[in-house]
């Protein structure tokens, strides 16, 4: 098969790395890709939101399977676009259509969906610029802290946790009147703050059947001890020690099954990944959010543990035959430490030469924000590398991943030194 992956991050490098191992994979392309994907595939200089150019690349390169990595093209309707091309109706696609992608594209849609199908989640109300006075009054009686979420895609920055009513009201006003997040904040979901421990569960759906992939926990804050600004993710661990068999059964019964039943009842033929962000509260799962794609950097710890041929899994997802395939998972622990540019998640410089990559041993360096330039690999984003190690214990996987983060060098490099340490303490 000829396979095209859309995206340019660590998630897409992990997809390409895994697919390159499959005998089903003949020619592998990534658009636009990065310096890491170029090592295992052919990069195409095409934006993942340029649907006509993607379609032309599909025709030119006789693509059989299209895998959509990021959320933006899914919400923008890339699947719908391809379904409207008469000569490409047989193209296999992994990713939901625009309706299904609203699970991530609209926080209000996903909250209403959860309420309709009895999926446990935090209590909430949604407000717009015309109902801002009601929103401010609602905040007066709300428990603290309180969570405010921009309805649309906001590059991972649209969630604010307010510790007091003054901050909550000014945030709501900034979002609705001040357009703090632009069109993404035209609606704001005001939500109960849940106290618990967070993890993510990943589901593959072919529209009818499903498979649950390995769970993961990621680390969003820039600073150690979960301090500082939110980022796209500073590291991840899989499996998650506090997600025992009993808890994961609850997730399947109370969240996964009703989610898929709801999608079918709404006429959404969902073929792709469902990322379920969960909070474990007193032993019970509550859904914080859905994503319509795999997480990043969670993909960099989930995929290395999957032993089933990944191309076979993707084909079965697109063809509707997931019931015919078994997912085999390695018992090893995978840990990834994300190395980021100085200044991230605020302003940062690009073009810093990355060195010492060749010294890494028994660690996979997934490129997240890199490019090739004048014979060097240079930084090209905030998150630069996800350094993934596997081992028979969490402690050893943490040690190997952190050692790799110390080894790699570029000007301004920063990373968290506590990825996975909380889970070691939890296990103790």
UniProtKB/TrEMBL annotation:
The protein's gene is named: purD
What range(s) does the ATP-grasp domain occupy? 111-319
Q: What class of enzyme is it?
A: ligase
Q: Mind telling me what this protein is named?
A: Phosphoribosylamine--glycine ligase
Stored Pfam families: GARS_A (PF01071), GARS_C (PF02843), GARS_N (PF02844)
Entry keywords, A to Z:
ATP-binding, Ligase, Nucleotide-binding, Purine biosynthesis
Task: Please list the reactions this protein catalyses.
Answer: 5-phospho-beta-D-ribosylamine + glycine + ATP = N(1)-(5-phospho-beta-D-ribosyl)glycinamide + ADP + phosphate + H(+)
Task: Tell me what organism the protein belongs to.
Answer: Spirosoma aureum
Question: What's a single GO MF annotation on this record?
Answer: metal ion binding
GO biological processes = 'de novo' IMP biosynthetic process; purine nucleobase biosynthetic process
């Amino acid at each position: 098969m000829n396979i095209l992956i859309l995206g340019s991050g660590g998630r897409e490098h992990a997809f390409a790395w895994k697919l390159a191992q499959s005998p089903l994979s003949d020619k592998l392309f990534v658009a636009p890709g990065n310096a890491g994907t170029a090592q295992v595939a052919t990069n195409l200089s095409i934006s993942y939101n340029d649907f006509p150019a993607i379609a032309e690349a599909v025709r030119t390169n006789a693509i059989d399977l299209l895998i959509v990595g990021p959320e933006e093209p899914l919400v923008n309707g890339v699947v719908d676009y391809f379904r409207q091309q008469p000569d490409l109706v047989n193209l296999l696609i992994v990713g939901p259509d625009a309706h299904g992608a609203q699970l991530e594209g609209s926080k209000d849609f996903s909250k209403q969906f959860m309420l309709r199908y009895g999926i446990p989640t935090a209590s909430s109300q949604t407000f717009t610029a015309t109902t801002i006075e009601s929103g401010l009054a609602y905040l007066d009686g709300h428990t603290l802290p309180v969570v405010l979420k921009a309805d649309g895609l906001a590059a991972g920055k649209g969630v604010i946790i307010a510790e007091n009513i003054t901050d909550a009201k000014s945030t709501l006003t900034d979002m609705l009147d001040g357009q703090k997040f632009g069109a993404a904040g035209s609606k704001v979901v005001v939500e109960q703050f849940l106290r618990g421990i967070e993890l993510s569960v990943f589901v593959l759906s072919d529209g009818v059947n499903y498979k649950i992939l390995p769970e993961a926990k990621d680390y969003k804050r820039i600073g150690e001890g979960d301090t500082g600004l939110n980022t796209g993710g500073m590291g991840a661990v899989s499996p998650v020690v506090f997600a025992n068999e009993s808890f994961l059964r609850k997730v399947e019964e109370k969240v996964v099954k009703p989610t898929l039943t709801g999608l079918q009842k709404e006429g959404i033929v969902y073929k792709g990944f469902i990322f379920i962000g969960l909070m474990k509260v007193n032993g019970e799962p509550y859904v914080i959010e859905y994503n319509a794609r795999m997480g990043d950097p969670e993909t960099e710890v989930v995929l290395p543990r999957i032993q089933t041929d990944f191309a076979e899994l993707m084909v079965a997802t697109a063809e509707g035959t997931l019931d015919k395939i078994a997912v085999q998972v390695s018992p090893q622990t995978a840990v990834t430490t994300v190395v980021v540019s100085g200044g991230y998640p605020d302003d940062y410089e690009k073009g810093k030469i990355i060195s010492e990559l060749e010294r890494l041993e028994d660690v996979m360096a997934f490129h997240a924000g890199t490019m090739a330039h004048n014979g060097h690999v240079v930084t090209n984003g905030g998150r630069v590398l996800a350094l993934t190690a596997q081992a028979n214990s969490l402690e050893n996987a943490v040690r190997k991943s952190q050692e790799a983060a110390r080894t790699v060098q570029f000007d301004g490099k920063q990373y968290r030194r506590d990825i996975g340490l909380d889970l070691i303490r939890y296990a103790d």
